[in-house]
Amino acid sequence: MGEALGMTGYLAPEGFVDDLVAELGDVAVVHDRLVFAPGPARRVAWVENVWHDPVRLPVASIKTAAKALRGIQRNWALYPVRHHGRAKLIQEQLPHVSAKPLVFPTPAPQAPLGSWMMESETSIIAAARCSSPFRNGEVEFVENRTVPPNRAYLKLWEALTLAGTMPGPGSVALDLGSSPGGWTWVLHELGARVISVDKAPLAPAVAALPRVDFRRESAFGLVPQEIGKVDWLCSDVICYPERLLRLIHGWLDSGLCRNFICTIKFQGPTDHAATREFAEIPGSRVLHLHHNKHELTWMLVAPPPAPGSASAGIRQCMTPSHTHSATTSSACRGMDAGWW
């Protein structure tokens, strides 16, 4: 249904359209943050949502627009770029899609969520298949505003949600650049034993947690063989991308860690060449989280065990103390299924 555009849409993070355009190279048209480029989807990092196989739909009225979208599928999210009043009226005639913030560690939604925008008063562009199950790629959480020492914990919440698997009781996690302790707190809440490393101190409440081993030293002075096997390596350390890349390769070469979540921070202009080096690591991906700033997140995560396998039988899932126990079973189901 509709006219195939022969393009893919890429929704840039707020403030980073230029980075996305530079990464794509050739682009056809830009609608605010929504960039269309010829051909099928490309592997890019500076994007919050990818619109696969978009089509143009002629619409004579609000009613016919809503009917056309409903005829394709149930769930749609509006990207409001122009003709805002008309677009809002169309969206109101579509089935309701909950936009409630996620309670971590509840898994990401599984239902397909399409995206659409007003191109003109008489035409819309729509993509039934998008990369993110969240409205315009915006992952929002019910925040904990009392315990974590900073808001950096939201990045790790988002990364783990997108990964579809998490540490649990019995896991060992290494948190590099941990001060003041937001990521260490997340890992501890999930049940892991955390080796937390930074030259700056942890917040006292985090340092006092029972399974936190704080080491006040440089992350770059660590020798993997001296640390030993860890299940997760998480890094939010402030450094140049090249230095982080060397650290990661050291751990990859050691074979002592299978799961990595690391923030690539840029000081000055974006280093696209360094980004490509991270993306070339087999099995990994580089993405811009909704909670990232001028930074990207590199992830290399072992796939969740298949349901019923021996490893799935021993893998555990834990609900943090601030969530209801009913969340636990749904979180475990989400980790098994994955979504990305």
Give me some keywords for this one.
single chain; 340 residues; alpha/beta; VC0802-like; Rossmann fold; 2 domains; 7-stranded mixed beta sheet; 5-stranded mixed beta sheet; 11 helices; 17 strands; 28% helix; elongated; disordered C terminus; transferase; Methyltransferase; SAM-dependent_MTases_sf; RNA_MeTrfase_FtsJ_dom; methyltransferase
Task: Tell me what you see in this structure.
- The chain has 340 residues and is an alpha/beta fold.
- The chain is built from 11 helices and 17 strands.
- β12 (193-197), α6 (204-207) and β13 form a beta-alpha-beta unit.
- It is elongated, with a radius of gyration of 21 Å.
- The model is unreliable at 310-340 (pLDDT under 50).
- Keywords: Methyltransferase, Transferase.
- InterPro entries: RNA_MeTrfase_FtsJ_dom (IPR002877), SAM-dependent_MTases_sf (IPR029063).
- Residues 150-238 form the Ribosomal RNA methyltransferase FtsJ domain.
- It comes from Skermanella stibiiresistens SB22.
The name CATH uses for the topology of the largest domain is: Rossmann fold
Give the class-level CATH name of the largest domain.
Answer: Alpha Beta
Shape: elongated
Summarize the main sheet.
7 strands, mixed
| Mean pLDDT across all amino acids | 90
Helix amount: 25-40%
Number of domains: 2
Strand order, main sheet: write it out: 13-12-11-14-15-17-16
User: Structural class of the helices, strands and pairings?
Assistant: alpha/beta
